[in-house]
Amino acid sequence: MKARKILLSESEIPDKWYNIMADLPNKPLPPLDPGTGEPIGPEALAPLFPMALIEQEVSTERWIDIPDEVRNIYTMWRPTPLYRAYGLEKALDTPAKIYYKYEGVSPSGSHKPNTAVPQAYYNMKEGVKKITTETGAGQWGSALSFACQHFGLECEVYMVRLSYDDKPYRKIMMNTWGADVYPSPSNRTEAGRKILAEHPDSPGSLGIAISEAVEAAVSSETTKYALGSVLNHVKLHQTIIGQEAILQMEKAGDMPDIVIAPFGGGSNFAGLSFPFLRLNLEGKTNIRCIASEPASCPKLTRGVFRYDFGDTIGMTPLFPMYTLGHTFVPAPIHAGGLRYHGAGIIVSQLLRDDLIEAVSHNNPEVFEAGIIFARSEGIIPAPEAAHGIATVIAEAKKCKEEGVSKTILFNLCGHGNFDMKAYQDYFEGKIEDHELTDAEIKASLAELSTPEIP
Amino acid sequence: MKARKILLSESEIPDKWYNIMADLPNKPLPPLDPGTGEPIGPEALAPLFPMALIEQEVSTERWIDIPDEVRNIYTMWRPTPLYRAYGLEKALDTPAKIYYKYEGVSPSGSHKPNTAVPQAYYNMKEGVKKITTETGAGQWGSALSFACQHFGLECEVYMVRLSYDDKPYRKIMMNTWGADVYPSPSNRTEAGRKILAEHPDSPGSLGIAISEAVEAAVSSETTKYALGSVLNHVKLHQTIIGQEAILQMEKAGDMPDIVIAPFGGGSNFAGLSFPFLRLNLEGKTNIRCIASEPASCPKLTRGVFRYDFGDTIGMTPLFPMYTLGHTFVPAPIHAGGLRYHGAGIIVSQLLRDDLIEAVSHNNPEVFEAGIIFARSEGIIPAPEAAHGIATVIAEAKKCKEEGVSKTILFNLCGHGNFDMKAYQDYFEGKIEDHELTDAEIKASLAELSTPEIP
After folding, report:
1. Every domain of chain A and the residues it spans
2. pLDDT tens-place string over residues A122-131
3. How far is the alpha carbon of A398 from chain B, nearest alpha carbon, in Å?
């Protein structure tokens, strides 16, 4: 019997996160103060984040210790299994060898607790009482609810209205872990009221929800804010995924030619790929790392690289990133976690330097991929994860056409147990292609008034 | 850092199921033909089940080989982890050591695929094209959908209407694996039409859904029926749980004083406890094995031991079991998997012989236990599983009162990702106590006209 899962013991959970900033050939440009246009210092982030996280945000140390308290909570689901996808390989009749790292075994069902736990921990250590955040599909919000509950913190979640209505049970999950959840845009913040005044039926977006959560955080001294992706420290925490995966690939006596992950703000992609990119940057490997984004929100494949806000209202510093413009409201696709206008700073720099690749998939293709996977591997993937699977299938088919056996590794970042309405819509023929026209992208970018990058 | 999970490798998946029939001091009475009152032979079951399963049903061999094809699919989620519940121990401030076997890591999220996979396999081997079944909360129906899909069989599921309405996403899950799902009672069968004529608003029950699935199976030569609990072969397949748990407890250097599992038809309880009962029967241990049932459906604690039908209409043979009467319709509690009027044959005999114990819990107590667990261990338990947790908490509190440290092992048979409406009802104060009065039980049993057992 061929082994299907490659497992690690708890003692093999890495004790350090990998900080790719130490190894980047070109460091990213600094964030700017939108008022002065000058680079901001770490202190500008102090109203939002505890100092320990700000230090990680700007650190260029290669390895950063994982506190024992965090590793102890990681053992609730980590190390996560690495699967050889025998079923999918057979279904595709491909010579490719396909592996996936399965992050859906966490209590909230995705990779998000990898950063929610350390974020809650550092906030607790610095005396914070409450954390506010945004959530799209609910993966991040539920992860933070779980983490806050463990460290005795209150948690207030602004959930994109589209997902709030589509995925009511995500809200109950957050309640079960003690969090308060509000649909965004809400009447609780000025940002929310402003959007509602202009668009009373707004389905919301991650950008809007971030504006609300940030506003709610800065209004109290003992409240801070937490972000589930985009920022450097978030990506840092997720590198536990790729580090484990390297150990597991070594145990399997294999090494990927291609590494694939879905792309929203970048934490999922960074988590799996950065440790492999380290091997590339050290000249040891030449692994293709591919980010999979929705055709309805194609910042990497069709956006511009320039300074932009992280939120819709414009409350954050300006970040150098691939963006569709901070006022862009993505189509209401079910992959709520990918409905974000911009890409994280480091990933943007990597793409600009041609160190990674990006592809996009339209919505029906994504769900077809999800169904193929569910029927061949058993696990029903979250719609976000199904984007990565669509890329895997495309690459595996290429292997078949070319008659070559490549090794493909992807991040199955979460299960779809809370996304069944999406599959219901698919079975009822309601999944539409929301690919953007050139004119739509041009119109969105025309609204950008932030500094261009030469 | 103390290890939280005790893991096994895939090569440690047992290659035999344990058949407790070989070791029972008193063999159960035979099933009877309801028409003649005479014991039935295996051939009476042939319209419903493939011969391989009928042989297992009546076998008295101690060990039965697990086919390689089945073990290969087991590796998709097995071996399942055994957790030391440090979080729960701390929350309860108990000297007890608490462990749980977590079966929720399977694709469908419960222990049910352990038997769904071999049942689909043996049907496929004997040329069956389609399997019908019933499902309560949807755990069994989704497990069988998953299993049938892997062996290329059609699957037709009759889902108790109460659960069909409460858990719509379970239906979509079954559809995702290619099954057809109908609410029961339905208009598709005579049994369903009969119930609907009398009770147009019937919430359904497992007994009714079994009648429908059995009727649908016998109406076609290439269609068979599958049951998710109660019968001997189902319990047999589930013993993989307890066998793995013994290996894992040995690795932990520990052995339980008390083994606890929720009780619906008995497969969950049997799966964990039978391998430990073998140790008891061999005189090696003296482990208390406790079945946890709902106070609204207390066949073990308040039912009678006599011959009764397995279904509501009376289509099955008569089985010797603890029962509340086959026409009993349990209150609409959220633990749909426990809403069954009777107990499996072997478990009934074990209880009659005082080799196991049973307790019941009322509904609010069960959800309080579920919340305590979700907040201390992260995993949100299915309402069925929360019944077992309620017993664990009661025993752990007893340890604290008595100042003794006992080792408790329980079966966390499934996660609650598809049961969030139940938790919503709990938060909204809608979880009611449905404990039966003596008069209600007397009235239900008065309708029984099946043979008494001396």
Report:
1. 67-109+233-435
2. 999 999 999 9
3. 26
